[in-house]
Amino acid sequence: MAERGVSLGARRNLRVRYRLTPWWAKVLVAFVASRVVTTAILLSFAARQGPNAWTPAHPDYFDFAAIWDGHWYYIIAAVGYPSTLPVTADGQVGESAWAFMPAYPAIVRVFMLLTGQGFPVVSVFVSVAFALAAALMFYRLMHLVLPASTALFAVVLFCVAPLSPILQVSYAESMHAFLLALALYLLVRRRYWMLIPVVAVMSLTRPSGLAFALAMLLHVAHRWWVQRPSARSRQVFPVRERVASITVGLFSAVMGVAWLLVAAVVTGSLTAYTDTEIAWRSAYIGHGELVPFTSWLSATEFWAPWFRMPQPLLLALLVLIVAGFFAALLTPWARRLGTDMRFWIASYALYLLAVFFPQSSLFRLLVPLFPALGVLAIPKSPVYRVVIVALCIAGQWAWVQLGWWVDGYDWTPP
Predict the structure, then answer these.
(1) Alpha-carbon gap, residue 293 to 167, rounded angstroms
(2) Cα–chain-centroid distance for residue 228?
(3) Could you tell me the pTM of the whole model?
(4) pLDDT in tens, 79-107
């Protein structure tokens, strides 16, 4: 009985110590543990990596982390953007650095100059630093709408998600995740004017300005309609907040097209950015105009033989998935996130439907939907939580196998 009492006392002490541990320390432990797992996965693939377009066989971690689009970020950090667009043999605009935003490679460039280190090492450390900042900021965001333990588990899911290896390679996703979490935090707290510099940098890190502008439009409309004052109540959407929120929305819309205008001015081609983006999808469906909301229709025709189903059936399946996704945002579980995060999730999903051609990079482009992890974190069953973490880690292995590891002629870019 005495031993049992000691055991109960020890467990009680551990629980007390855990409750007294600062939230940031818990997030830090979760982040470091997840990076150990993800780094082990990436190293296991690097050890088996054969020679490819970017590295010799068996590259070290940093070189392995700087392949694919990391090489484009290296070009930007080293020499900047071309003043003329490359043209293919058939007279079409080819792939170039203009498809990539400047904020991330600019920061990497600064630290390369300060430290004297090469791009692979610096870019990985910059990405990991932003990933930690994103995890900390994501906790603050989730804790606005969820209990502390649920918010912490949402961070765990963020750290171990199938796409979480992207947070520690030479990509801009971790920087964008931090800025997005900060922007949503400021939006929920209604600190509108503070959003302007965040939105400016975020829009030049990954394409997101137009999606955030739509989220701001929905936010303003919601406050205007749902929170309009009655004759007996005070004004709950005061004029100063109307002006500030509308200004942020308009500013975000401008930033959503700012990079297109920069590319047009430098290259002399009004469609420089969109033509460059189309160059990447030309390997699938050839060159053509960027017509909103038509890429997914073209994709069903392209992918139908691969999935071995008729194109109308694949299109019907796509419609069901999209409808189910937006319907899920109306469920009681999703409503726990509040209106603003759901507005962002819906707006960004609409943006992808409008401009993106679905291929293997789609998984990476879903990363900005990470606030939805708060919904998956709500169930408190220990069995559920262990199982979902295990599935996420297995998903990391699957994604590195499918998207990151270069296996001969690889047509599944991350």
Answers:
(1) 29
(2) 34
(3) 0.95
(4) 999 999 999 888 899 999 999 999 999 99
